[in-house]
Amino acid sequence: MRSKVLLTEQISQVGINLLKERAEVIIAPGTSEEHLKPLIGEVDALLIRSSKASAGLIEAGKRLKVIGRHGIGLDNIDLDAATRLGIVVVHTPGANTNAVAEHSLWAMLHCARNFNKAEQAFRRGAFCGSGSLPGMVQKMCFTTTELSGKTLGLVGMGRIARRLAEIAGKCLNMRVRSYDPHVSETVFSSDGVERCDSLDSLLRGSDFISLHVPYMEETHHLIGERELACMKNTAFLINTSRGGIIDEKALCIALKSGRLAGAALDVFEEEPPAKDMAFFGFENVLVTPHMAAMTDLALVNMATDVAGGILDVLEGRRPRYLANPQIWKDHK
Asked: Which one of the listed residues 113, 290, 318, 331 is annotated catalytic?
């Protein structure tokens, strides 16, 4: 009998076709538990994107052998519950590396180029008078910043941070520093990245700070009032990791007071956000809807990687990206 795979949402058709070659694919009508619980008891695998796989949902999967996460982070999966029940969890940590690094770079450029304020003023007709355009740019204080020679501080030194370091250092002549106590000195030296001994040291000396750490208890509000106070008042904060890593109330205060020059946020503590989210009202904040990994190539990569990982488990092979390796021996 063919295995059954339940998808909480659509993924790239390339991944769906890969699954359909060797399993029956069921796409849920919605992502809430009330949509998923009636279906999960009859499937062998669950594939999720950003919806949650709670302990209650996992426990309802009486035949469940594997949970696949279409993406990197695992904070939306109760990993302890899955491990306790002997369910393998796979994810796609390398699939969107370049996509998120490119988005982080674009966000830095957007901040450095003054949040497109000159372009917006140009559209409003502010430059349609007499005089040269470059002269008016300077007169109206729309001059911007170059990344060359500036310091990029990376919080975390995983795949995405290392790719961003490569682009920023080698192509843009930026000084790149990083804080990550869990990564060996070899990684820093091989990538030509300066190692910081503390988060405070990194924050104090950086013009752009980009966050690249997973969300967990240890990183909840990693960047709060005290950390924001360490930063230069000309610095910009970039977050493409998870919203809960920043204390958003503290960030709002820092931005309002001029304690920080600006921020670029792709992720938020509440997703989807409320219509009156404070950041919507800031001119010095770039906000995007958790889209850093939503590129044509990354979507195909994530779909094929997660589909491949699920099929590996269902067919008795050890998957490449195993989130709870401690259970594989027992699983076999």
From this structure: 290
Catalytic residue among 271, 283, 317, 320, which? 271
Active-site annotation holds for 271: yes
pLDDT digits (tens), the chain, 332 positions = 799 999 999 999 999 999 999 999 999 999 999 999 999 999 999 999 989 999 999 999 999 999 999 999 999 999 999 999 999 999 999 999 999 999 999 999 999 999 999 999 999 999 998 889 999 999 999 999 999 999 999 999 999 999 999 999 999 999 999 999 999 999 999 999 999 999 999 999 999 999 999 999 999 999 999 999 999 999 999 999 999 999 999 999 999 999 999 999 999 999 999 999 999 999 999 999 999 999 999 999 999 999 999 999 999 999 999 999 998 875 55
Closest CA to 179 of 251, 254, 230, 234: 230
Catalytic annotation present for 84: no
106 dihedral zone (left: phi>0; alpha: psi -120 to 50; beta): alpha
Cβ–Cβ under 8 Å, residues 194 and 169: no
Tokens 């009032």 correspond to: 225
Of 162, 177, 242, 248, which is the active-site residue?
A: 242
Q: Does the active-site annotation cover 212?
A: no
pTM here?
0.92
Q: Which two tokens stand for residue 127?
A: 């430059």
Superfamily of the domain at 3-95+296-331: NAD(P)-binding Rossmann-like Domain (3.40.50.720)
Give domain 97-287's CATH superfamily.
NAD(P)-binding Rossmann-like Domain (3.40.50.720)
